[in-house]
Amino acid sequence: MGRYAAMLAALALVVMTAPLLSTPARAESGYDLWLRYQPVEESYGAANHVTALVTGYRSPTLDAAAWELRRGLTGLLGRAPAQSSAVTADDVLVIGTPKSSAVIAALNLPLTALGDEGYLIRGVTISGHRAMVIAANSDIGVLYGAFALLRQIQMAKPLAGLDIASTPKTKLRVLNHWDNLNGTVERGYAGASIWDWPALPEHVSRRIIDYARANASIGINGTVVNNVNADAAFLGAEYIEKEAALADALRPFGIRLYLSVRWSAPMELGGLKSADPLDPAVKAWWQAKADEIYRAIPDFGGFLVKANSEGQPGPQDYHRTHADGANMIADVLKPHHGVVMWRAFVYANDPRIDRATTAYNEFVPLDGKFRDNVVLQVKNGPLDFQPREPFSPLFGAMPHTSLMMEFQITKEYLGQQTHLAYLGTLYEEALESDTYEHGPGSTVARVIDGSLDHHPISGIAGVANIGNDADWCGSIFNQANWYVFGRMAWDPEISARAVADEWVRQTFNNDPAFVTPVVDMMMKSRQAVVDYMTPLGLALIMAHGHHMGPGPWDTIGPREDWKAPYYHRADAKGIGFDRVASGYVAQYHSPLKEEYAKVSTTPEDLLLWFHHVSWDHRMKSGRTLWQELVARYQKGVDDVAAMQATWAKLADDVDPERYAQVRDFLAVQHREAIWWRDACLAYFEQFSKRPFPDGYKPKYPLGYYEKMPFGASPKP
Ligand code: GCU
């Protein structure tokens, strides 16, 4: 027997004997995400019944809804619903639009306000029979409603009396995949790219369909399939054919395909001498390219552009503005109803200028100069997806321009694959921030849902954490970040806690003794990361390049603003970045700019972001800043230990495979939290020259932390 044959035989034996071993629950890889459809536990479940599914005319989207309901209801309620075209019994479920279903049409339901993506779920009586309807104006609304109903049942909510009308508050709810042509994923921690380009266009894998289902279940309606650091080849004829096959597979699930484009593509693919947006030949090239794409993908969404940012080419190479560039592309997409998502992530290579001020300085003068199918995509904070940043002052400063939010779902700066950090609280903090653009209540949520300044385009983008790993996201708890991103894109005002509760119930179970501690743990998790990595408003002190682990000493970057000391500015006097002097604070509206201008009125969580503060400054706790810094790092470590203790008590409530992954990753997180604490404090102590509080001292000398090879951390 060859080596592989022997391995397979051994595996088969394990598979055959596994059911004989007594395990508390079947092992789960996490592949099913939150769409597990396990039987609802009797004790928590309502006595729900669905006897038959009543459908009307078919379409690929309505078929997807019916398929999902059959699969979901069979799993959850333990019995497959019959298929019917008329209501002849109690407890039937009728789905459709007034066009697809005569039964729905006859009910005269209040559907107008639902728009073209919303849904209504309601109990009704039809021909004397008790029935439930999922109705919408469009097929995709029905699919969203199907997932919403299944969510209710998975959460053990009673169907009786259900009456839900829901419409998304934003138009563009898109994932940004930073996936490269060669199958790698920039800042991806969940394996290779899910797009199997070599196998396309002939073959679309089952994983792509499951990806589409998962996205539809949370209302995501667009996907940018390639990295913002884009390869022009994605616009070549060979790739357009592949992208068209992918778009065909995603279409029934309401997901439009978008591409990131490389600004210099007309030169690289078209052989032109320039990519000047005002050159008619350049515009003609883009026009022909857009026409070619739309012939293959009639509902193509549009382009995402990273221009003149981190070395990428852009219109400024020709002394044109971002508006010149965005508008040229917008004009070629306009006849096809496509949009341009133009990124505002730009910063100058000038150490005298505070990097946090640069996007505002470049874009605010262009307010009102963009076409109506351009939307600026702005990262939540002005730097770069840090564990905590204040909201970007661009929100609230461009009333005449559509702005969409860019969140990062993949945790580049928050522990990557292993650390448990629920990002719902980070997203919520950004979205509920008040910009005061038109006085109190001008929240970031209202800027990006378009309601504050009445913009027709609105949206949220999330840099995906999805890869080919068995559990999609690199860890079970990372799945929650994909989930909450979609739910908050649908409704930017939904609460992080409510979404965590939904996710836990669907991903694990409905036992309150499990749900409550796990939700509590998730809600505290992001603050724990802030505390052991970048407390009190510190930022960008991660190791250079890969951003994994501490690197407050790092000065190896090629430019000043890629070096850690540029950000923390620790010296003998104190620590932190004086952003009053840099002009950053003035970019906010009153009363924020007055509040942030003074140490005494700046929230302590952002203190060192806004001010350079003396080591002996007295904090609200009564400690000095130095003592507080030590206390915060310690608290972060303690909070991870508390998460470990919480999880350890829950072993009997989770299948062994997922239980063990979370347990092991929490152990990694604890080891690395200690590393962060000790390395940072050993480093900052050379400036503070203050004694460590009693009972605390880094275990190793600073040089040891500085030399740690990638992927390793000191033994605690
Ligand atoms: C971060 C990230 C890069 C990415 C960039 C961007 O700096 O580290 O990998 O390209 O953001 O958002 O464009």
What is the CATH homology-level superfamily of the largest domain?
A: Glycosidases
Instruction: Please state roughly what percent of the residues sit in beta strands, choosing from under 5%, 5-15%, 15-25%, 25-35%, 35-45% or over 45%.
Output: 5-15%
**How much helicity do the residues have?**
25-40%
Just give the CATH class of the largest domain. Alpha Beta
Shape: globular
Notable traits:
716 residues, alpha/beta, Chitobiase, domain 2, TIM Barrel, Alpha-d-glucuronidase, C-terminal Domain, eight-stranded parallel β-barrel, six-stranded mixed beta sheet, 21 helices, disordered N terminus, binds alpha-D-glucopyranuronic acid
Description:
- The chain is of the alpha/beta class.
- The chain folds into three domains: 34-166, Chitobiase, domain 2 (2-Layer Sandwich); 172-507, TIM Barrel (Alpha-Beta Barrel), CATH 3.20.20.80; 531-577 and 612-706, Alpha-glucuronidase, C-terminal domain (Alpha-d-glucuronidase, C-terminal Domain).
- It contains 21 helices and 16 strands.
- The strands form three sheets. It has an eight-stranded parallel barrel. The protein has a six-stranded mixed beta sheet with strand order 2-1-3-5-4-6.
- Strand 8 (222-224), helix 6 and strand 9 (256-261) form a beta-alpha-beta unit.
- It is globular and about 80 Å long.
- It starts with a helix and ends in a 10-residue tail after the last helix.
- 52% of the residues are buried.
- It binds alpha-D-glucopyranuronic acid.
- The site of alpha-D-glucopyranuronic acid has 8 residues, from loops.
